[in-house]
């Protein structure tokens, strides 16, 4: 394996405990869409999180249109994306917290300057920026190296599409093989895998009864070289990736 020069971090529930907060806001709008389409099902934030973890709101709406066999116009998509983003950013600015143990690890990477570090997320850029700003992580990342599949690309997309990872590598000026991605979800891990980026899986935010299942998903299905439960394990995991 080439020498690792660059670490690409997912944001939601990898750097920042934001998914649960965001999905509370998403549920309200998802239910509004279902009601508009005369579909009786309704979602709680928790149910949405289980079904669509790792997807941005646009990707989630596409999944809903397929699941329930209805259509939305481009104007409707854009309207709901804008509404969701405003609600989520507002809630994150109030409630977001860092993942356990992440702060000292990012601070050390920043101070040591051995690796380039970037954020590569499915979420809208303003949401990612609000999350890392709220938990005081923004100061460690070059603002130009904070990427969003929903905002940074010429055509908005969502993980598991690898486009945002490929774009990030091009912008930073590195090859996928010299990077390592850190991801907590199937969709994010699949995006890294399809971009041919070595992967560290992370299961810290999952409930205890789901951690083992997600370890298996990340390792067996998505090809993670190693899976960590707490950020304290990160330096050792990075060594294992480099040695693979």
TrEMBL record:
Keywords: Carbohydrate metabolism, Magnesium, Metal-binding. InterPro entries: Beta-PGM-like, HAD-like_sf, HAD-SF_hydro_IA, HAD_sf, PGP-like_dom2. The keyword Chloroplast does not apply. GO terms for molecular function: metal ion binding; phosphatase activity. It holds the Pfam family Hydrolase. Gene3D superfamilies: HAD superfamily/HAD-like, Putative phosphatase, domain 2. The keyword Ribosomal protein does not apply. It comes from the Eukaryota. PANTHER family: 6-PHOSPHOGLUCONATE PHOSPHATASE, HEXITOL PHOSPHATASE B. NCBIfam families: HAD-SF-IA-v3. This is HAD-like protein. It comes from Aulographum hederae CBS 113979.
């Amino acid at each position: 394996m080439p020498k690792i020069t660059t670490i690409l971090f997912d944001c939601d529930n990898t750097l920042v405990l934001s998914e649960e907060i965001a999905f509370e806001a998403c549920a309200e709008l998802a239910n509004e869409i279902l009601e508009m389409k005369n579909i009786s099902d309704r979602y709680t934030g928790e149910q949405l999180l289980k079904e669509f973890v790792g997807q941005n709101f646009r990707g989630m709406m596409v999944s809903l249109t397929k699941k329930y066999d209805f259509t939305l116009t481009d104007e409707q998509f854009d309207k709901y994306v804008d509404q969701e983003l405003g609600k989520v950013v507002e809630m994150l600015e109030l409630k977001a917290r860092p993942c356990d143990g992440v702060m000292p690890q990012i601070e050390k990477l920043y101070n040591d300057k051995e690796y380039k570090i970037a954020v590569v997320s499915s979420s809208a850029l303003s949401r990612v920026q609000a999350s890392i700003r709220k938990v005081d992580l923004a100061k460690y990342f070059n603002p130009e190296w904070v990427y969003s599949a929903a905002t940074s690309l010429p055509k908005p997309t969502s993980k598991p599409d690898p486009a945002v990872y490929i774009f990030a590598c091009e912008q930073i000026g590195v090859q996928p093989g010299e990077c390592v991605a850190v991801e907590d979800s199937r969709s994010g891990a699949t995006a890294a895998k399809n971009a041919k980026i070595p992967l560290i899986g992370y299961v810290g935010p999952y409930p205890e009864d789901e951690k083992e299942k997600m370890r298996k998903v990340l390792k067996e299905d998505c090809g993670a070289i190693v899976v960590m439960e707490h950020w304290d394990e990160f330096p050792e995991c990075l060594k294992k990736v480099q040695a693979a």
